[in-house]
Amino acid sequence: MSTSVNKRENILQSALAFFAERGFDATTIPMIANDAKVGAGTIYRYFENKEVLVNTLFQHYVELFTNTLVEEYPSDHSLRDQFHHLFQGMVRFTNEHEHALYFIKTHNAAYFLDETSRKQFEKLLAILRNFLDQGREEEKIRDLPSTALIAIIFGGFLELHKLIRAGEIEASEELLEGVEESCWDAVRTHK
Amino acid sequence: MSTSVNKRENILQSALAFFAERGFDATTIPMIANDAKVGAGTIYRYFENKEVLVNTLFQHYVELFTNTLVEEYPSDHSLRDQFHHLFQGMVRFTNEHEHALYFIKTHNAAYFLDETSRKQFEKLLAILRNFLDQGREEEKIRDLPSTALIAIIFGGFLELHKLIRAGEIEASEELLEGVEESCWDAVRTHK
Amino acid sequence: MSTSVNKRENILQSALAFFAERGFDATTIPMIANDAKVGAGTIYRYFENKEVLVNTLFQHYVELFTNTLVEEYPSDHSLRDQFHHLFQGMVRFTNEHEHALYFIKTHNAAYFLDETSRKQFEKLLAILRNFLDQGREEEKIRDLPSTALIAIIFGGFLELHKLIRAGEIEASEELLEGVEESCWDAVRTHK
Amino acid sequence: MSTSVNKRENILQSALAFFAERGFDATTIPMIANDAKVGAGTIYRYFENKEVLVNTLFQHYVELFTNTLVEEYPSDHSLRDQFHHLFQGMVRFTNEHEHALYFIKTHNAAYFLDETSRKQFEKLLAILRNFLDQGREEEKIRDLPSTALIAIIFGGFLELHKLIRAGEIEASEELLEGVEESCWDAVRTHK
DNA sequence: GATGAATGAGCGTTCATTCAT
DNA sequence: TATGAATGAACGCTCATTCAT
């Protein structure tokens, strides 16, 4: 039981790391099994097949990320504060789950995602969209489709994250503040 | 004669579309052959193997994109004009080559790229880096690593492009102007 | 456990028979798998690839044959007795391993043999060469290159063996004694 | 016409060299076509397929060799002289057709030979068998199956020939005389 | 429940053969 | 007649998945 939970968790962690680093298609079940220190067959006791595994992983982390963004959401603070909360959520989530956001980003349009995964991802987008739509009504956010703005924030942050992961730049406090400011300037109106 | 050119071109176009949509590893030679309406073996008359095919494609489009950015570059105009030139280059290139930029973005760090491909891609980055470094000296561009800013522009634009390709938003003149402005605001200093 | 050993052994036996009968290039993995009653993939659990399989087989039987020739070698008997020992070794080895010597003969110069295989085969030749060189010093063996004499014995015996395997002649005690005498007369001096 | 004859001849010569050096299965049609300086398709104007080509070649050279042995056969000379004639025939044939005898030897039991080829080869053996049977009646040839004796001569001579081809020993007059004597001693009775 | 040996579908690739030119 | 571009069957090999232990 406790063993089982651990095994399942080990499998998920190993799979996450490989999917993020090499992608779903370049990752083999033996690789995951080996890294998770379980038999290859054991993976199939916890996950029907490789696609179920990747969807489970995707849904889990999208939900976790969604919760991170939603928790203690400062609805009654300024729009800038709300943006800060969201951006900090990204940062914190990435710190806590090294591979998760990059995995989500590189696999969110993949051919093997099922309905549930796509819907889960939609829910995440909805939160960001709500924020932006509200801001646009107040004329504090640009009159561009929310999806486009999300793309800029998400895309920017995650390409940055990729560089940090690759060791090409260092994730200092200053850098992150600068990037947050940059993203905010990308999104807000400059009357 | 003309047939051969067409076959080679068909293979390249089919491969580009699949690589962009599913990635290199998830794309099989039979998929490409079928889509290009040639026999599987025919692909090997034009390309030594799958890796040569993907490198050929990568180098071709990185070079084409680089040329697009470099052509008629307004060196003596304002930084904003230069940015416009670069952004318009992206837009034009993407209009002319639907899958190319997305393919470049999703494969530029792939394990199967050869030296030439990597160097070719470095040349492209150098152009963008030069632009940003120059602007930073003039204190018109934020004091963030160029790679990070490139990530924001590239990432933002391409996530947007992905949405356009997916048909979720429409690529109107206004939208693109708005996104350009948004990217510019992400990158420039706001005294 | 015992199953695994058997599978490996079955694969080796099937491969040996095909390699001897049709040659390495004309033998396909599916042929071997089918004959050994294993899945094609199973072969790769035991042998890294087809070349490793053929080299394993080659080395195994060359060593076995070498040992057969060396065991209880009558160094202090007459040259004729030594020849008898070697010839009997060939006969016995061929009786115990139907296809092995023919396989060795037809593949000993093949392009796919690795260093170890070549060295192993050299060791076998060295034994025969030593015997002949010693005899030539005593002027009991013809003054022809040892390699040439080995070729005559080996070639003669194995062409004979081929006929026996093909069922065209029967391997009686008398026949073998006659052939031994014939080979000995081919090799020795007739003062 | 003359061109055609040449093309056909070129194809046969190139095929012979490759078959002798690498074997039938390791030889590709493009290899032959390239070496013969004809298009790959051209080969199929002269030979229905690869197997017909190899059978044509086999039959041609077996017949040629047979004729070499039969020509000017000294029926009324001594057995030893007849043997000399046969052995000289082998030598001469090998000098005139570098790859032919080795090709015949390495392919005479191949799975792809047709009925005609096998019969042709049988005819060649019959000549040698006749010689031996006659000698045995006179009690000048050992009482061993003719096929076995042929195997010794053929096997010995051709293993020797292989060494010469490989450059491991030189084909001097003396060597050949010595080998002939050796073969003769292998075959004759030593009352 | 956990394992990993075994499987075979399907991959990338080669090459005998065909056929439009 | 001669060609070589094109084909697809079949190769060697990998790996998701199964199942006896």
TrEMBL record, chains A, B, C, D:
Gene3D superfamilies: Tetracycline Repressor, domain 2
Residue span(s) of domain HTH tetR-type: 5-65
Domain of life per record: Bacteria
Gene Ontology molecular function, alphabetical: DNA-binding transcription factor activity; transcription cis-regulatory region binding
One Pfam family this sequence matches: TetR_C_10
Record InterPro entries: BscR_C (IPR032551), DNA-bd_HTH_TetR-type_CS (IPR023772), Homeodomain-like_sf (IPR009057), HTH-type_TetR-like_transc_reg (IPR050109), HTH_TetR (IPR001647), Tet_transcr_reg_TetR-rel_C_sf (IPR036271)
DNA-binding region, residues: 28-47
Keywords (A to Z) from UniProt: DNA-binding
PANTHER family for this protein: HTH-TYPE TRANSCRIPTIONAL REGULATOR RUTR, HTH-TYPE TRANSCRIPTIONAL REPRESSOR FATR
Record-given protein name: Transcriptional regulator, TetR family
The organism of origin for this protein: Halobacillus dabanensis
